[in-house]
Amino acid sequence: MFWNKETETLKGDKLEKLQIKRLKWTITQAEKIPFYKKLLNNSNISSDDIRKTEDIHKLPLTKKTDLQGGYPFGFLAVPKKEIVRIHTTSGTTGKPTVVGYTRQDLDNWSELIARNLTMVGLTADDTFQNAVNYGLFTGGLGFHYGAEKIGMTVIPSGTGNTKRQIEMIDDFGVTALHCTPSYAMHLSEVAEAMGTELESLRTGMFGAEPWSDNMRGILEEKLGVTAYDSYGMSEMYGPGAAFECKERNGLHFWHDSYFIEIIDPDTEEVLEPGQKGELVVTPLVKEAMPLLRYRTGDITMILEDECPCGRGPKIARLTGRSDDMLVIRGINVFPSQIEHVLRSIPEVGDQFMVYVDRINHLDEMTIDVEIKREFFKGELSDLERIQKKIIHSLKELLNLRTKVSLVEPESLPRFEGKAKRVIDKRGDKF
Amino acid sequence: MRAWDPRIEEMPVLELKKLQYRYLKTLVYRLYSFSDFYHRRMKEQNVHPDDIKSLEDVKKLPFMYKTDLRDNYPNKIFTSSTEELVRYHVSSGTTGKPTVVGYTQKDLDLWTQSLARSLTACGLGRGDVMQVSYGYGLFTGGLGLHYGAEKIGATVVPTSVGNTERQIELMQDLNVTAIACTPSYLNHMGDVAEKMGISIKNDTELKTAILGAEPWSEQMREYLQKEMGISAYNIFGTSEISGPMFTECLEQNGIHIWGDIAYTEIIDPETGENLPAGEKGELVMTILQKEALPMIRYRIGDITCLDESVCPCGRTHPRIDRLSGRVDDMLIIRGINVFPSQVEHALLGISEVSGQHFMIIVEREGTLDNMTVQVELKQESFSDKINDLMDIKRKVSHILKNSLNVSCGVEIMAPNSLPRFEGKAKRVIDRRNI
Amino acid sequence: MDTKDFIIKQISVFSENKPGRLAAIAKALEEEKINIFAFSIAESKGFGVVRLLVDKPAPALEKLAHLGFMVSFTDVIAVNMKDEPGGLYETAKILGNSEINIEYAYAYSGKDAAVLILRVDQVDEAIRGIRKSGGELLKAEMFK
Hints:
- The complex is a heterotrimer.
- Chain A is built from eleven helices and 20 strands.
- Chain A is α/β, with parallel strands linked by helices.
- Chain B starts with 5 loop residues before the first helix and ends with a strand.
- Chain B has helices spanning 6-9, 13-34, 36-44, 66-71, 105-121, 140-151, 164-173, 183-195, 200-203, 218-228, 340-348, 386-404; strands at 85-91, 99-104, 129-132, 155-157, 178-181, 208-212, 231-236, 246-247, 255-256, 262-267, 281-287, 295-304, 306-307, 319-320, 331-333, 336-338, 353-365, 368-377, 409-413, 428-430.
- Chain B is globular, with a radius of gyration of 23 Å.
- In chain B, 31% of the residues lie in helices and 24% in strands.
- In chain B, α8 (183-195) runs parallel beside α10 (218-228).
- The relative contact order of chain B is 0.12.
- In chain B, β3 (129-132), α6 (140-151) and β4 form a beta-alpha-beta unit.
- Chain B has a six-stranded mixed beta sheet with strand order 4-3-5-6-7-8, sandwiched between helices. In chain B, strands 19-18-17-20 form a four-stranded mixed beta sheet.
- Chain C folds into two domains: 7-74, VC0802-like; 75-143, VC0802-like.
- In chain C, β5 and β6 (114-120) form a beta hairpin.
- Chain C has a six-stranded antiparallel beta sheet with strand order 2-3-1-4-6-5.
- In chain C, 29% of the residues lie in helices and 35% in strands.
- Chains A and B meet through β1, α6, β4, α7 and α11 of A and β1, α6, β4 and α7 of B.
């Protein structure tokens, strides 16, 4: 099924023509941002230099840290009164990255989600439980608007309260579920313990964190669904930039809205289809916050085979990161953020270790912290207070619940050279 | 902008009443013909749609209660098919099963329309940056205000609840001009901001606050307005009537209830008799154009009074006074409705404690409501390991959080240490001074 | 007599909840020939605090700190109890009557006497209250 067949199956010259037109527009839009104006001036490039899609390689790359420098509004290309929504996403240190949307942007985004949902066979007759975070995180509102657009019944269940989530699936006859794959796993186990088969459920859409084909098999069996992978990030509106079709063999990128490249993360050299590297995305229709050649940090490749469904080229499911970003329960966490938080708490000593593990299919982050000696006054309650303070500060910045263990002084490993303070014990992520 | 929809908002009173009558008549005929539930209710009350000959005849119709929603869980009294539904919201019920509200696209549009009018009446519009600090998701506050603010072209910052320090940073960094949250949360933000060395009055651009979901006083308004250099407006609505829908206007003198959306009555909660305008009683609402879950003479349980005079702002729609209490034992904790019966229901499901022996203590700690549930430990669950007892406490607190949607303190008490009641139990000690 | 004569230095040691930590502490004290009068462990999630009353607090603290333990002195008081039925009741009554709020307590009962060790929020007032009500406190000089 298609939501917008003509656009979804656009290929060859027609697609290239549209991409060039939109790329030129995006460059003009980006020139309204001082950062890009300077960058484009320095490299002496303007939209006139784009005659074929390969000319995009002449444009400079944009990194996440560049966005950080523009906090809060440095990357907006439209007057503030045209912004109707703001989302934020984790930055690499204390401040988040701010993403703005015009009304047109919200429409574009909903259109892409509507295409994705329709592509996997969902219609207005479906009842859809959206079990991801609402609010500043793009996953919740993004899917919500798309599902509403095609007229599905939306249950904005958000995260947490698993028992009630399961009751709602059964009581409302939910047919489609969107959540992180690890939460889906957890949900299936709780459902099993509650003695329900979740009979109405048929479609599972899982994203915001990497998951394997092995996990897909388990989820499909346990939940009785067909499971689809979803990809996106706030910088490209949110989830929905790429999605699996019924073939479930790679994710279709929406090429009318994004121009994608794969580069070697070290040399920045552009790679061919079939070669693995870092995904670089240039959104083609973003008004409020255009980006040029944005380095996503995600490792994948463009697949060479044509898809029988008739849509354009796919990317492989993600196979890693080019940086040290962690994805914990669907939330992106940079070790530098954790360091930033811990360094701002006076009681915390110089040494800490972060362990990420998967317990009952849910990611758990444990942080071992040494307390500075001068803050130990012999009272248990003081220690408990410090422990709570650390947990609270991490929650405030990362929006993530963590376990904090206070350990004895000098018990944590000391590093010479580059410290390896994060140990990811989760196996089989990718 | 003077008004979002001046044609409706400033409609002459007589015309508005005619419109209300027309909507009522249509609604009653529709429900009598197509809804088993309403048909039966009207039969029981011995009333036929033909008996509704004027707007005042609404009082011939039977009341609806919150328990009607629970008894017909999840959607037995919906009058739209599942295909027509586009949204569910779920709020806490009085015991185990939650209250479910379904919406058609038209229901959502009307809700958004109502808020667009109300937010405009509070002076908001394009160019405003509105932080929505109500909970998103199943709770109606977040998405309701979100859609309303988006409709009027404001920039929406969907912060949802929690992470107060981050919220204050965003308020400052994103030049937020308006916020929607509970009055106690705004008060709390003021305190936290002060600790961060930020004055909301001097260091942010906040000028409007839309406050509701819990009772608050005129003194509180004066305090917040002065302290933060803002104008604060009262907002009203419950999920059964769609969600938060109605606010005050710039006059700050009563909440305008859009007459084309709702017909308002005030009754004596004991006798069910209608009370004249100006007299305090229980608020009863009939939502005139709702499709999926119509509400006829719904007993909201809040105590207020009605003012039918035309407002100096030019709007002709009647106003209700700020809420001054409840007719039942419902508590409002940080904007969330909590019934003691829900607490009991949740506790009875936990094997380690004696769920029938509990007390609820509500206090205002600084600016935020704190609810503490005391429950007796069962003799056989006692352990000399503090960690075991802490685990039980954590379990109780987790289960209560899940069933009440609000976190509360838990105190595990020794067996036989809590009061026993003969006759009607008085399990709530409310130490707040609102 | 000054109240400070009754304030005893308890050694508090931070310890992770893992095997061998108590042995490590005890070994350190044994090496310094330090005698332990009383001790208790307070537990929390993942860690605890070992509390000790020893005959030579200063060398004990120094030794433990030298070994890398996180240690601190904590002011406590110790009340002599009669080592017979009703002994604790008599003491507890005094505490109750003096309106003393106990943060934590532990006790030892030896061949000569029984002692209740208390951590209280207002130590000076507690000492005055207990003495006024006829309670007998151990002197700090015993632990030097």
